[in-house]
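yo, DUF418 domain-containing protein is done. seq:
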Amino acid sequence: MTTNAISSPVPSTMSDRIVGLDLARSLAIMGMFWAHMTAYEPAGFFDGWLAQVPDGRSAITFALLAGVSVALMTGRQNPYVGERMYTARLRIVGRALVLFLAGGLLSSLGTSVVIILGFYGFWLLLALPFTHLSVRTLVWVAGVGAFAGPFLLILTKSAMAAGGLFVGSDPNSAFMTVMITGTYPGLQYGVFVIAGLAIGRCDMLAQARQLRLIAGGLVLMVGGYGLAYVATGGENTWPQHMPWDPLTSLLARDAAPRSLEGPLGWVFPSLGEFFSAEPHSATILETVGSGGFAITLLGVCLLIGSAVRYVLYPLAAMGSMPLTSYCGHVVAIYFFPDLEQSLSLTGFFVVLLTTMVFASIWKAMFSRGPLEWVAWRSGLLYSR
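structure:
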């Protein structure tokens, strides 16, 4: 650490950032805006398919980018060692604490938005034990986790349902929530974080690497979604209903049973549900297919990042301050409840354009967004 760290944001340009990463973040943020502020009713097949793309995939892209961020903060292609790695990890812990605080404050607003920040902070912490591993090892861990994680989720949730167990809302239940029962369970989303860490350890600016990401992501997409389409007859690959959950299935006494119950009350997904690729279903095929989608999106953004640096400056500026942009849209929903799940797209575009204009003006004057600066300073203070 240097002793003359600045105490306020400083003027900067986009030249010292990987623009492709900012573009990917901005698209993930836009997907969150769409999911939380629109109840758009599509008029045809194409716009119906397009309107459902952000569902679940925005959060997965966030998780993938969380892993990339951890790689950038711990040495990129040459991981730090010794005291330098120890300091970098402490800075990540400091940033995670800010995310926990911001997530708690947003939750207190009482909107129906499922706040992702607490999960994001946990993802950062989850990646710390893996920061010293090689790219090859990280790829193997992510690959095995893509199958083992969702399968463990099914077994664990089924066991909890069979035993009549539940997860409360107090701090004692925090680990179970972020790992198993929450909207973004660590047993699944940790796979995307580890995959992002592996990507961040590579030379992301090399065009050959970017093309590999696109090709590999497309293979995973076709494999995951294609198998789900064949196995389910295309009924729930791009769904508009809630996914299977054994706890809900067992406890919903007035609902017709959807899953198979064994002699001990165990609840398992039916064959069609097991092979589903529904958003938030936490199945193997959703993990593979949606993970491939996020990797492809990242590869495309990295590939075109330099070429569209100035053309898409407002979009990249929004992506350079994801914490500020995300918190801003939740606060906007709090003050203007009509923005939430609106049948009109007006509110979505107003919030999106306002965020891009604010980010563009701020980025022209300062190197970090306002909340990003707070997280950065927290990391510095915590590492001393």
